Amino acid sequence: MTLLDALDGQEYIIKQINTDDEELNAFLFSLGCYVGEPVTVVSHLKGGCVVSIKDGRYNIDNQLASAIEI
């Protein structure tokens, strides 16, 4: 299941991030988005979703949301 399939307001644990882009992996890590970290989908938008990770909220697009397995 990916972030695109997640229910709004429910907390999930990140199981895997499927991307081969090292810069993107480093960026996600800097946000606190890595395997084992809890993530909550605040809301789904037309082009992506808003997620809450640690103390921040981030808008991520559908392509990235589909790469994050929960």
Automatic annotation (TrEMBL):
Matching InterPro entries: Fe-transptr_FeoA-like (IPR007167), FeoA_core_dom (IPR038157), Transcriptional_repressor_C (IPR008988)
Domain Ferrous iron transporter FeoA-like: 1-70
Keyword terms, alphabetized: Iron
GO function terms (MF aspect): transition metal ion binding
Annotated Pfam families: FeoA
Protein name per the record: Ferrous iron transport protein A
Organism of derivation: Youxingia wuxianensis
